[in-house]
Each structure stands twice: as C-alpha cells, then as structure tokens.
Write a structure and sequence with these properties.
InterPro entries: ADH-like_N, Chloroplast_QOR, ER, GroES-like_sf, NAD(P)-bd_dom_sf, Quin_OxRdtase/zeta-crystal_CS. With 307 residues, this protein is of the alpha/beta class. It is built from nine helices and 17 strands.
C-alpha cells in the first residue's frame, strides 16, 4: 500500500510517500480502505517526538488517527462490521506506528462507527478526534440546560464542534472566542462571538454580566486563569491544552476512542445538528503541506487528506 511515513522524529520536511506492506488485521479489528484522513495538530506533534515519553513508537511511523473509509476485511471476532460497511473513527491504538495517512489501516472495532449518511468522506474524516474531544469535554463538566458555555478558539477544529454539541446538549447560551474574520461563522453555528486577546474577560462580562457556567480551553496559554475569573463555579473549566489543569482547579481531557460517542455524533449529523467546515483538503502525497497549514494555528474548521 501507499502511505505517508516518517523514519525518525522530525518535521513536515521528513514525511515521504512510501510503499509499505498492507497492515495485519488482529482479533477485534477490521481493515479499512481509507477514503479520507483527518489532520490534527497531534499528528505532527507525534512526529516531532512530543509524545515519546508516554507512547511506544515503532518506525517508520505512518501518522494519523482520524479515518473515514470502507471495511475491506474483518478480523477474528469483529462481528460489529461487515465488508462494505462505510465507517469513520478515531483509530488510535496503544502504540504509534501504522496510522491513517495510508491507503489501508487496521482499526479496532471499539474505535469505529458507521459513517453519518449526511457527511461526505472529507467531513466524516474531520469529525472523530475533534468531535469526541468536544463531546467528552462537555460531558466531563455536565453541560446541559441552564448553562452558559464559553468556548475558547471556537472557530477551530475542536471549538467548532464544541459550539454545536453544546447546543445539541441543550445549553442556554454559547459564547465563542475568535478573530473578527470568524465572527459570522460562529453566529452561523450558534455562538455569540467575542474577540480573543487582551481585555477578553471584560468583553465576556459585557455579554454575560453574571458570568458563565462552563469554560472550554481549546487553545492554552492563560485561558484557565481568565476563565476562572468568569466562572460561577471555578472547577467547571476543561482544558485539552494544559495538562496542569487539574492542579489549577479544573479538568484535563485527553480524548478516548469510544464507539458509542461516535454513534452519538453521527446521530447529531444525520439530524442536522452537526456540520463540519473543511478548510482545505489535500491529496495524501501533500501531507507535509497540510501539516504546515495546521501549524499556523489559524484555520477554520478542519484540514483533511484525500486518499
């Protein structure tokens, strides 16, 4: 199979288009013919070695954890799916080696669900990691009716899901931080926009004089401190960017593969409550360019690779 690979920790310049053996398909796994793969910041961070202290790695690495494609073969005791099923998933395993930037990937059934009928391949591939992150963050702090939610970096990959899923969970209001060019986009997905940067707390207070109930940190920096100055209950802040969030009185979330959560997201999509803005789709061979765009931190929605 053709795949994008990296032979040692490095940068986008070290990615190469390689011919590799087809993946083995273990018990409880299926082989997926990849139609599209989502690009996430963690992909290039893995390749740079940032996760080396916590995850086993075997080179060459094929990056990528987000996938949308068609089941080509099933492994032993993998009866949840059949050949020909259209699936999407967060195909993260317990080690880093054979990811989704490839023509084929083997994925545990616990990481997959049936693709939403409402989404094309690119939208489906852009959903799993970011959508699960947003959903699991909101559930961690019990988001629901009566809550006002502040979403930091609300126009980004995770933030745009956070806005829409919060709405689907029935919260009263969503306030989202973004640059002014993304304010109309935020309004279109159900958020009241506010410009990030110096003076953010005052601008949020102008919209919500009584403060907010929940804050979602999808950007890092001093966001937790700013959020806690606005929260009615300071422990209802979740960060995916600051591992010390728990020590600061909040919660840190590292997204987990979860088939039931994927099914929930697919249901929202098919009910018209969830959309995916694909900022740009690159051919597989141009994964390095996709990483460079991701590294700017200025994209709206998702970046994907087509296979």
């Amino acid at each position: 199979m053709k795949a994008m690979a990296i032979d040692s920790y490095g940068s986008p310049d070290d990615l190469r288009l390689a011919e590799l053996p087809d993946p083995k398909v273990g018990p409880g796994e299926v082989l997926v013919r990849v139609r599209a793969a989502g690009v996430n910041p963690v992909d290039w961070k893995v390749a740079a070695g940032y996760l080396d202290p916590i995850m086993e790695t075997a080179f060459p690495i094929v990056p990528g954890w987000d996938v949308a494609g068609v089941v080509e073969r099933t492994g032993l005791d993998a009866g949840e799916f059949s050949v020909g099923d259209e699936v999407f998933g967060y195909a993260r395993k317990d080690w880093v080696q054979r990811g989704t930037y490839a023509e084929l990937v083997s994925a545990p059934v616990r990481t997959l669900a049936r693709k939403p009928a409402a989404f094309d391949w690119q939208q489906a591939a852009g959903t799993p990691l970011a959508g699960l992150t947003a959903l699991q963050s909101l559930r961690r702090v019990g988001a629901g009716p009566g809550d006002t939610v502040l979403v930091h970096a609300a126009a980004g990959g995770v933030g745009s899901f956070g806005v829409q899923i919060a709405r689907a969970l029935g919260v009263d209001r969503v306030i989202g931080t973004a640059g002014e060019r993304n304010h109309d986009y935020l309004r279109s997905i159900g958020a009241e926009p506010v410009t990030y940067g110096e003076g953010l707390a005052e601008r949020v207070r102008a919209l919500a004089p009584e403060g907010v109930d929940i804050a979602l940190d999808f950007v890092g920096g001093d966001v937790i401190d700013v959020s806690q100055s606005l929260l009615r209950n300071p422990d209802r802040v979740v960060s995916i960017a600051d591992p010390a969030a728990g020590e600061k009185g909040g919660h840190y979330v590292w997204v987990r593969p979860d088939a039931a959560d994927l099914e929930f997201l697919a249901g929202l999509a098919d009910d018209g409550q969830l959309s995916v803005h694909v900022e740009r789709a690159f051919p597989l061979a141009e994964a390095a360019e996709a990483w460079r765009l991701s590294q700017t931190g200025r994209t709206r929605g998702k970046i994907v690779l087509t296979v």
